[in-house]
């Protein structure tokens, strides 16, 4: 069977001739006109909402920022905050070193919250994140224990080298969570 025979058998050819006849086209003109008006109305609404929303501005700002900074959008604020935490250690003052560790721990907690991992206990949040997000879970939990020692034991002593190692553990966690 050829395609023409199949069209004749199914009546497709007759249906196409009927639909394309001038009588049907004249009868459907008002319906087509209404649909064209709806299309223009919805197109105008899309343009209106795109202009009045901040979504395009946000996307444009995000793209331009990523292009000129050569890093992911929002990564600059993460880098800036990590730099300020590290600068506390460089002072060599023990209270500043302790404060840097506490801030880094809080930053990890905030990063977990931003990822949607809301747990009351830090340990449970880290476990919930899993090895996929935090491959160095044990080190993070040990660093958190050090943070707890700083907070709950006023006589706790820590040196700058150990603090730098702890901060590097927290930094790797933050980078993994913000990626």
Task: Report on this structure.
With 179 residues, the chain is mainly alpha-helical. It has two domains: 3-52; 75-178, no CATH class. It is built from nine helices and no strands. It has helices at 3-10, 12-19, 22-52, 55-69, 75-90, 94-114, 122-133, 137-152, 160-178. The protein is elongated and about 95 Å long.
Describe this protein with a few key phrases.
179 residues; mainly alpha; 9 helices; 82% helix; elongated
Q: What percent of the residues sit in helical stretches (DSSP H or I)? A: over 70%
Question: Count of DSSP helices?
Answer: 9
Give the overall form. Answer: elongated
Structural class: mainly alpha
End-to-end C-alpha gap:
60 Å
Beta-strand share of residues = under 5%
**Low-confidence blocks of residues:** none
Integer tally of domains: 2
Mean pLDDT metric: 81
The biggest sheet, with number of strands, parallel, antiparallel or mixed sense and barrel status, is: none
Query: What is the number of strand segments?
Result: 0
The helix-strand sequence is HHHHHHHHH
């Amino acid at each position: 069977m050829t395609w023409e025979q199949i069209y004749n058998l199914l009546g497709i050819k007759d249906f196409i001739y009927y639909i394309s006849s001038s009588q049907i086209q004249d009868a459907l003109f008002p319906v087509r006109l209404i649909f064209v008006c709806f299309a223009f109305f919805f197109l105008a609404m899309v343009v209106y909402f795109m202009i009045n929303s901040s979504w395009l501005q946000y996307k444009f700002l995000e793209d331009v920022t990523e292009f000129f900074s050569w890093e992911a959008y929002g990564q600059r604020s993460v880098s800036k905050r990590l730099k300020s935490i590290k600068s506390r250690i460089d002072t060599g003052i023990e209270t500043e070193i302790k404060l840097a560790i506490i801030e880094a721990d809080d930053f990890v907690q905030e990063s977990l919250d931003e990822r949607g991992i809301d747990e009351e206990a830090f340990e449970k949040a880290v476990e919930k994140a899993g090895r996929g997000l935090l491959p160095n879970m044990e080190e993070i939990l040990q660093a958190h224990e050090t943070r707890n020692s700083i907070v709950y034991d006023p006589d706790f002593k820590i040196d700058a080298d150990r603090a730098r190692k702890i901060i590097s553990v927290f930094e790797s966690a933050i980078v993994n969570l913000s990626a």
